């Protein structure tokens, strides 16, 4: 797949995402009182079928997630994803060990929505601030889905025609003291990528000056 970015722009996106997810991870670490371990962001340009295959490889099975649309200097959809059977455990880590299963179940949707809002907003806001740009985010939505259907959930308006290209940034996170891991994924609409690329080029040109 031909990339839309130069090698310098590609490295810059990875570096900025690394900073953004690092700040988001600090917020999560405080919420769960545990160290959050992160992978290096993996940036790929994929056809929809390739993206679907990537999801099935890294995140097989039933997933719980929180997704959030964003627009501004870049547009797309961001998502926090983790195995569905572990969602209550993640909520318990946030709310505290002394809560009953019933209490946690009642607060699951609200807690996951707030978690997604904190993590995704942190990352997107940091990226925008570092590039001196503006980004607007929508209200996060909690969902449950089987991995083969994930792509249609994450692509804007379900558009995944064979000619389209998905810019996918995947970041794996895990908790040191708990057997919990998940992914952050950012699907960026390449049809409106001109502003995003221009912001990257402006940032790089200011580094040279």
Automatic annotation (TrEMBL):
<dbReference type="Pfam" id="PF04509">
    <property type="entry name" value="CheC"/>
</dbReference>
<dbReference type="InterPro" id="IPR050992">
    <property type="entry name" value="CheZ_family_phosphatases"/>
</dbReference>
<dbReference type="InterPro" id="IPR007597">
    <property type="entry name" value="CheC"/>
</dbReference>
<keyword id="KW-0378">Hydrolase</keyword>
<feature type="domain" description="CheC-like protein">
    <location>
        <begin position="14"/>
        <end position="43"/>
    </location>
</feature>
<protein>
    <submittedName>
        <fullName>Chemotaxis protein CheC</fullName>
    </submittedName>
</protein>
<keyword id="KW-0145">Chemotaxis</keyword>
<dbReference type="InterPro" id="IPR028976">
    <property type="entry name" value="CheC-like_sf"/>
</dbReference>
């Amino acid at each position: 797949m031909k990339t839309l970015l130069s090698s310098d722009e590609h490295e810059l996106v990875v570096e900025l995402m690394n900073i953004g997810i690092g700040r988001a991870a600090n917020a999560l670490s405080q919420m769960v009182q545990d160290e959050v371990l992160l992978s290096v962001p993996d940036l790929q340009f994929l056809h929809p079928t390739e993206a679907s295959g990537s999801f099935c490889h890294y995140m097989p099975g039933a997933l719980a997630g929180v997704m959030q649309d964003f627009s501004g200097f870049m547009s797309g959809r961001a998502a926090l994803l983790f195995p569905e059977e572990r969602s209550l455990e993640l909520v318990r880590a946030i709310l505290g060990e002394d809560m009953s299963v019933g209490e946690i179940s009642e607060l699951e949707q609200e807690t996951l929505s707030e978690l997604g809002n904190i993590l995704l907003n942190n990352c997107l806001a940091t990226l925008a601030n570092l590039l001196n740009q503006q980004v607007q985010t929508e209200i996060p939505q909690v969902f449950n889905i089987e991995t083969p259907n994930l792509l249609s959930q994450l692509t804007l308006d379900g558009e995944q025609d064979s000619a389209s290209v998905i810019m996918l940034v995947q970041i794996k996170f895990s908790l040191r003291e708990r057997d919990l891991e998940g992914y952050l994924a950012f699907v960026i609409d390449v049809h409106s990528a001109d502003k995003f690329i221009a912001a990257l080029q402006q940032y790089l040109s200011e580094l040279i000056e």
